[in-house]
């Protein structure tokens, strides 16, 4: 693939801008400046620098972000900064593929929820993850306002009725993790589902953190606000 096309697919701007970056000597491959936009490279696995910033070619982008509290998952946030501001511009500017332009959050977390957020420009992946047929388990660590007891856990496992649907929703798994905390696994993602389920059993969520999706744990070395690429093994773990 021509170097200008590689930069374009990775979100470094229009083809003209990418050609300009290369001609001006801003792009290095294996430490050597390449100033010919049409020079061909094997794209898969290519590492390069643009204005000194390292980048690795990815045909599709799949990343994990440790969402900090006080951020919104919307592109047009109403009150708090958007999680998209935590990503480097190329990830947000990747050219449109199908209906998806740039990476998008796979589902949403509330502004005060922290933890594992997947982001991708693979529209099919977003669709699959949202589909209730796929039942990908999501694990939430909950801090509650009042003491957590066995009866609350039993009710969350048996199913509770939320106000928008007479069909009960149940936790796929639920356990007490402390006097005021519990771990809840859901295979669906209704609006404010954890908070509403915990409220339905007479308690209240004061802290919420997503620790796992499928078999992928939030990486322990990923600080709030940081992101990293997902590996093929991570993607396989998510699918379970
Ligand atoms: N359930 C909630 O109530 N909030 C979230 O952010 C995620 C799940």
Summarize the structure.
The chain is α+β, with helices and mostly antiparallel strands and 240 residues long.
Description:
By secondary structure, the protein is an alpha+beta fold. It folds into 3 domains: 3-56, Structural Genomics Hypothetical 15.5 Kd Protein In mrcA-pckA Intergenic Region, Chain A, CATH 3.10.290.10; 63-132 and 221-239, Pseudouridine synthase I, catalytic domain, N-terminal subdomain (Alpha-Beta Plaits); 137-213, 2-Layer Sandwich (Alpha-Beta Plaits), CATH 3.30.70. It is 22% helix and 29% strand. The chain has 7 helices and 15 strands. It has helices at residues 3-9, 15-23, 89-93, 123-130, 150-158, 193-200, 232-239; strands spanning 27-29, 32-33, 47-50, 53-56, 62-67, 104-105, 114-120, 138-144, 160-162, 165-169, 173-178, 181-186, 205-213, 216-217, 227-229. The strands form 3 sheets. Strands 5, 6, 7, 8, 11, 12, 13, 14 and 15 form a 9-stranded mixed β-sheet that branches. A 4-stranded antiparallel β-sheet has the order 2-1-3-4. Helix 1 (3-9) crosses helix 2 (15-23). It is elongated. The two termini are 33 Å apart. The structure holds uracil. The site of uracil has 8 residues, from helix 6.
Features:
single chain, 240 residues, alpha+beta, Structural Genomics Hypothetical 15.5 Kd Protein In mrcA-pckA Intergenic Region, Chain A, Alpha-Beta Plaits, 3 domains, 9-stranded mixed β-sheet, 4-stranded antiparallel β-sheet, elongated, binds uracil
């Amino acid at each position: 693939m021509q170097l200008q096309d590689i930069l374009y697919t990775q979100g470094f701007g229009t083809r003209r801008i990418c050609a300009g970056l290369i001609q001006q000597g801003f792009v290095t491959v294996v430490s050597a400046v390449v100033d010919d936009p049409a020079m061909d490279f094997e794209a898969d696995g290519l590492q390069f620098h643009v204005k000194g910033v390292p980048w690795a070619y990815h045909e599709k982008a799949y990343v994990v972000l440790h969402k900090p509290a006080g951020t919104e998952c919307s592109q047009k946030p109403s009150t708090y900064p958007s999680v998209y501001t935590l990503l480097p511009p190329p990830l947000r500017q990747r050219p449109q593929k199908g209906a998806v332009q740039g990476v998008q959050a796979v589902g949403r977390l509330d502004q005060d929820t922290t933890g594992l957020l997947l982001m991708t420009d693979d529209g099919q992946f977003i669709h699959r993850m949202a589909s209730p047929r796929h039942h990908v388990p999501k694990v939430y660590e909950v801090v509650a306002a009042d003491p957590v007891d066995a009866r609350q856990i039993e009710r969350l496992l048996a199913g509770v009725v939320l106000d928008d649907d007479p069909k009960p929703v149940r936790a796929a798994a639920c356990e007490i993790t402390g006097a005021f905390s519990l771990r809840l696994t859901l295979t669906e993602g209704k609006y404010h589902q954890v908070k509403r389920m915990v409220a339905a059993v007479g308690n209240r969520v004061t802290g919420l953190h997503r620790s796992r999706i499928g078999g992928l744990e939030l990486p322990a070395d990923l600080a709030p606000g940081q992101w990293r690429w997902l590996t093929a093994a991570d993607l396989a773990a998510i699918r379970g």
